[in-house]
Amino acid sequence: MMQSQVDRPNTKRFTLDEANAMLPLVKSIAEDILSVYRTVTSRQADLRRLLRQSNRTAGSMYADEIAESRIDLQIEYDRIWQYREELESLGVLLRQPQEGLIEFPTLIDQCEAFYSWKPGEPTVTHWRYADDPWSHRRDIVFSDRNPGDANSR
Fold it and tell me: How far is CA 53 from CA 42, 48, 66, 149, in A?
């Protein structure tokens, strides 16, 4: 069975302050990812259009354009992968490139969890347990006794 990123023994676990301190760099990378993802979406639409046109006509009138479009699309996918690797080298995980959703491994109530951030949020304000789906982001609630950590379940 493959271990998840947060279960690996050498996984960096972030405090909330550490996650927020990394946001300027992470935000820059996430914005780059979103930009590339918009390009990918546009190129995918162009490729689908070309494929529909080539299916309607006999011959290979669009073959060169289709091949070039596929190459360009692969280059953009490779760029997203490079950004993902850059984030992982920082100990941070890209979860949804289309949204720029980033997660920081942590422990909450001695359970594996993630602080969660996406572009448009001024700071890290969400978290989830590792076994929760990505869509189950919870607001961080601060307690008087431990203002740097999310409250328990």
Answer: 17, 9, 10, 55
Domain map (residue ranges) of the chain = 13-139
Q: Round to whole Å and give the CA distance between 57 and 133.
A: 45
SS3 state at 29: helix
CB 114 within 8 A of CB 105: yes
Cα angle vertex 4, ends 136, 147, to 5°?
Answer: 50
**Nearest alpha carbon to residue 6 among 122, 153, 108:** 108
CB < 8 Å & 24+ apart, contacts of 89-96: 90/22, 90/25, 90/26, 91/11, 91/12, 91/14, 92/22, 92/26, 93/5, 94/30, 94/33, 95/134, 96/134
Backbone angles phi, psi at 127, to 5 degrees: -155, 170
**What sign results for the dihedral spanned by CA atoms 31, 28, 91, 6?**
negative
Determine if the pTM surpasses 0.90: no
3-state secondary structure (DSSP) of residue 11: coil
pLDDT tens digits, one per residue of 29-71: 999 999 998 888 888 888 888 888 777 665 566 777 888 888 8
Contact 114, 104 (CB under 8 A): yes
